[in-house]
Design a protein that fits this description.
298 residues, mainly alpha, 2 domains, two-stranded antiparallel sheet, 1% strand
Length: 298
């Protein structure tokens, strides 16, 4: 049997898409602000340019760019894109993890657990209620997702299969798939880190060179040096927003934990130990665990 994301509840799919949409919105807002700041600094570094009535062209461009930074910031603050992105991501991953634990008899939905379906619904609503307290908007309240359907037919079918099939399905479609996802994300972050690190170094070296020229009374002047400094600062800010370096370390550690757990699950775990092993694996892939590792990475 295979068990994919398509077999998860509709509530997961809605929150997952909401998280992707809000993440894109938040990222685009930050990118726009940084680009507008660089554009404003570039316009201010240029000569005054042609006059438009009583205004100078490049001065006007600089004013518009700085106003755009404020406008984008106000809109992002009102839209709450970043908090809603994080809340929807937490909700989606919580639903996904709980669904997997229910389907393969992970704790607290082991084979000997009485009333597993009722326990699942209770745990689901309790976790989502905590997110609601922090501002998460339940799509079921607005009718975007119909009530019921928290347990899909695929989840029922997988739960009804024997231990060996459940173990094989979980290891292949959850554990290995998640490990490969962390590996891909690590490679993407490595490439992005290298690109932005070299870009920042280049901009800083150019600013240093022009600053040395200025110290000897030559060179293009302080305006270009300021522009290069602004561009380098924007690159550093973008790199910090994307958290490439701490996520490399966090994702690498989680991938190693999942690889070790995969070996254990395929060799030494018994059926009685299975519920706690699944619970521990789901703890590894939780967003909270990733954020904790990222915050405490060296």
């Amino acid at each position: 049997m295979t068990f994919r994301n398509e077999d998860l509840p509709a509530l997961f799919h809605h929150t997952d898409q909401a998280a992707i949409s809000r993440q894109r919105e938040s990222t685009q807002a930050t990118r726009a602000q940084l680009l507008l700041l660089v554009a404003a600094a570039a316009a201010a570094a240029l000569p005054t340019g042609p006059r438009l009535g009583s205004l100078y062209l490049f001065g006007l461009v600089s004013v518009v760019a700085y106003a755009g930074v404020l406008g984008v910031g106000i809109r992002a603050s009102r839209r709450r894109a970043r908090p809603q992105w994080q809340l929807n991501r937490s909700a989606a991953e919580f639903i996904k993890s709980l669904a997997w634990r229910y389907a393969v008899h992970g704790a607290p939905f082991g084979s000997d657990a009485a009333g597993a379906e009722a326990t699942y619904r209770t745990r689901l609503e309790a976790g989502l209620d905590e997110l609601k307290k922090m501002g998460w908007e339940d799509p079921r309240a607005s009718g975007a997702v119909p009530e019921g359907g928290e347990i899909t037919g695929a989840m029922f079918r997988l739960r009804g299969l024997e231990y060996q099939v459940r173990r094989e399905t979980y290891v292949r479609d959850r554990l290995i798939e998640q490990r490969n996802w962390y590996r891909r994300k690590t490679e993407v972050s490595r490439r992005a880190t290298a690109l932005w690190s070299w870009t920042i170094v280049l901009l800083t070296c150019l600013a240093l060179l022009f600053a040395l020229f200025g110290a000897f009374g030559s060179g293009p002047g302080p305006k270009l040096t300021g522009l290069l400094s602004t561009a380098a600062a924007a690159g550093i800010a973008w790199n910090e927003v994307r958290r490439h370096h701490p996520l490399i370390e966090a994702h690498t550690l989680i991938e190693q934990d999942l690889a070790a757990m995969m070996v254990v699950m395929q060799t030494t775990i018994t059926e009685s130990q299975w519920p706690s092993a699944v619970y521990e694996t789901e703890r590894y892939v939780s967003p909270q665990h990733t954020d904790w590792l990222a915050r405490h990475s060296s």
